[in-house]
Amino acid sequence: MKIQRAVSALALVAAGVVASVPAAYAADVPEGVSLSENQTYTFWLLDAIKSMDPQINTDVEGSDILRNLFEGLYNEDATGALVPGVALDHTLSEDGLTYTFNLRDDAKWSDGKPVTANDFVYAWKRLADPATASEYAWYMELMQIENAPAIIAGEAPVDDLGVKALDDHTLEVKITTPLPYFPQMLVHGSTFPVRQDVIEEFGDNWTQPENLIGNGAYTLTEHLLGERVEMDKSDTYWDADKTVITHLTALTINDVNQGLTRYLAGELDRVNIPAGQYPRLAEEYPDEATSLPYSCSYIYMLNVGEKGPEALKDVNVRKALSYAINRDIIVDNILQGGQHAAYNWTHWATAGFTMPDIDYAGWTQEERTAKAKELLEAAGYTPETPLELELNYNTSEDHKKIAIAASQFLKPLGVNLTLNNMEWKVHTDRMQSQDFEMARYAWCGDYNEASTYLDLFTSYSGHNNGEFFNDDYDKLMKDSKTAEDPQPMYTAAEQILADEMPVLPIYHYAKVDMIASDIKGLPTDNVMQTWYGKDLYRVAE
Amino acid sequence: MLVYILKRLAIAVPTLLILIIASFLLMHAAPGGPFTAERELPPQVLANLNAKYGLDQPLWRQIVSYLWGIIAHFDFGPSFIYKDRTVNQIIAQGFPVTITYGSISFLVAVVVGVALGVTAAVKQNTWLDYIAVGISIGAQVLPNFVMAPILVLVFTLWLGWLPGGGWQGGQWQYLIMPVIALSTSFMASIARITRSSMLEVLTSNHIRTAKAKGLPMRRVIARHALKPAMLPVISYLGPAFVTMITGSVIVDIYFSTGGIGKAFVDSALNRDYAVMMGVTILMGTLTILFNLVVDVLYAWIDPKIRY
């Protein structure tokens, strides 16, 4: 697989050797292709953009905007492989703890000033600074930057952060444990540089179109909350000559069906397809309806902790619940958008990840159901003496349909699911205070590597709401951080999850979209679905 | 009259205060907070956020400093969710949008509604009456969340006459569908109320007298019947006007107008305390104000009413 090769090539760079990333990737228009006169791209946002501040944003949609207004050290190409951004390349010290990034000297801010290593230093310190109160401050901890935890906790001065500008174009970063996937994490929006003088001058208003100075391929011209975002091509961007699309528009449409109607009326170039409509649209618009793997997993989390029900402490009951769910019906009949049935946690298309040999994944549904029945009977649950469980889910037609299906799969086996639909915040709050039995949950990868999923079920993760604690699992995940090749450990960790079944995996996401057939350059093999306006172009039809 | 108005305005202050405190407490009683997210925040990060937004203070102190901010600086605080905006900025962007399509919808609803109602009453039990009643019942049973997608389907997708949504500074093409979607059910209610009230007035003594004097029917209706018939309509219009100009979440969702209605609902779901308080106060103030306007109009229309 392409993604896999590219990432491991970077991840396994021998100590001290310059990691060279392939030549810059931009709108590479193949020869002989004639471009359209109209080089604009209009895309869809489900919700208003919460923030255009790289260190404050927390949303996927916000990141789509940020990647066009700012540029980090590295970017991704259409396959998810790293390509130079502001950094041309880097060296890694012998012990794997010091990264030295070599920044390009032609990178400029939208007011013409050069982008320097200090802009990164300021941004990263700002992310960790308690005064910024960023919801993504923990990303600095995830990146293992030296002193990040103490700074976030307010126990050390911000200047202690392990990031330093050696000169204007050399950035040094110190981390506390070797992280094979560290360069991959630099694509994330929260690591993008920002301008200290602009932020100090305008305060919270610095992201207004008239104030915002970015270093990306586009500049912000208008932002009407809940209506639209307009961006013009930036002439100061270092690769402006190769940037084809001259204007980006993001339209907020809060209703998926309405978004589709407006796409069909020609108002948008890309929009999400509502659940269940993919087969029809794929038939009617074969050049436009697409389904691509997307790095998120959908599960039912089980509360196996102290506050959880007695029954769920029995691993056989948990297995029975998982076996009984007919995933094929969920993906083929309910979602119908090319999602994959899931029998494990990490998204199947994650770079470098080898799926463990999970026994029940290979069984037929009849075999699974029979085994579930047997296990439940052994635990004393039959349709006459059923097990009563509550399943919480947040308001959404799709969650409701899947929950109803789950209750139907389980009922004949002697498990009565009471379905509790609740508002999103209530659902989340109850999960986080362990006030649930079974709960719908989904997780999207922060970067394209299995640990972004697997770290969640360590006893120290902070997101492990079902309180599944397993020493072997913790040890595997800890060891994986320093392992030369962590992949076998990830596979082993998945095996533990399959044996202990603290969650019921349901499906792996797909990005199911309508994309205008004349728009080219969008990611094809990138499971993160990271895209950049600068890589796109519109062909003449 | 002036004393009455001043008295009503004086009562408005404690009313608003009670509204503010009650909403504040109710909102904080709802489970979850602005920073509850699928990815639970590390305790230290959450503590930093709470400190930044003053959520670590006792409730009474939060209320006091919130009120002080409003009174002293007319500052409704920063949004907890849309972090590069203040509540003032959010309302300043959304409210003009909402008030534009709301006022136009109101005018359309009143003009069309009253015309339909009067026609139906005057031509009672004729085909005109049946058509008018038919239209108003049709409009009433088509709620705007059904109407909006149908409008977009017909006018945008099939006919291609109008843009499917957006605002673009309120250009007329962008206004038509929101106005139709928002005004129809109000129009229907106004037509129904006008019709029944008109029918009642038309059988009253002073109309019989007017007719007996030999006045032409048009004059009887315009000079003698319309004004008293409007009384129940006016009492309906006050709250209806406030509802329309404070926005419709349906219109905002389907037509992406960027109005205040969506911001209000989102703020409740997001636990964006500051935005929710800001919009609540705005709506509360407008409700109090327009109830007063209605009462004053009453006195003007009906000589029997004196304050």
Automatic annotation (TrEMBL), chain A:
**Classification via CDD domains:** PBP2_OppA
Give the originating organism: Aquimixticola soesokkakensis
Question: Which GO cellular component terms, listed alphabetically, does the Swiss-Prot or TrEMBL entry include?
Answer: ATP-binding cassette (ABC) transporter complex; outer membrane-bounded periplasmic space
> Which positions are tagged coiled coil?
none
Can you name one GO molecular function term for this protein? peptide transmembrane transporter activity
Q: Does the keyword Transport apply?
A: yes
Main subcellular location: periplasm
Question: Could you tell me where this protein is found in the cell?
Answer: Periplasm
From the UniProt annotation, give the residues forming the signal peptide. 1-26
Q: Which GO terms describe its biological process?
A: peptide transport
Classify the source by domain of life.
Bacteria
Residue span, Solute-binding protein family domain? 82-463
Family stated for the protein in its record: Belongs to the bacterial solute-binding protein 5 family.
Name of the molecule in the record: Periplasmic oligopeptide-binding protein
Which keywords does this chain's UniProt record carry? Answer: Signal, Transport
Automatic annotation (TrEMBL), chain B:
Q: Does the keyword DNA-binding apply?
A: no
Q: Which Pfam families match?
A: BPD_transp_1, BPD_transp_1_N
The record, for Gene3D superfamilies, names: MetI-like
Please verify whether the record's keywords include Membrane: yes
Keyword entries, A-Z: Cell membrane, Membrane, Transmembrane, Transmembrane helix, Transport
Q: Where is the ABC transmembrane type-1 domain?
A: 95-298
Question: Where are the membrane-spanning stretches?
Answer: 94-121, 141-162, 174-194, 233-255, 275-301
Query: Its topology with respect to the membrane?
Result: Multi-pass membrane protein
Q: Which InterPro entries match?
A: BPD_transp_1_N (IPR045621), MetI-like (IPR000515), MetI-like_sf (IPR035906)
The record's GO CC annotations read: plasma membrane
Family statement drawn from the similarity comment of this UniProt entry: Belongs to the binding-protein-dependent transport system permease family.
Its recorded name reads Oligopeptide transport system permease protein OppB
Source organism of this protein record? Aquimixticola soesokkakensis
Q: What is the lineage of its organism?
A: Bacteria, Pseudomonadati, Pseudomonadota, Alphaproteobacteria, Rhodobacterales
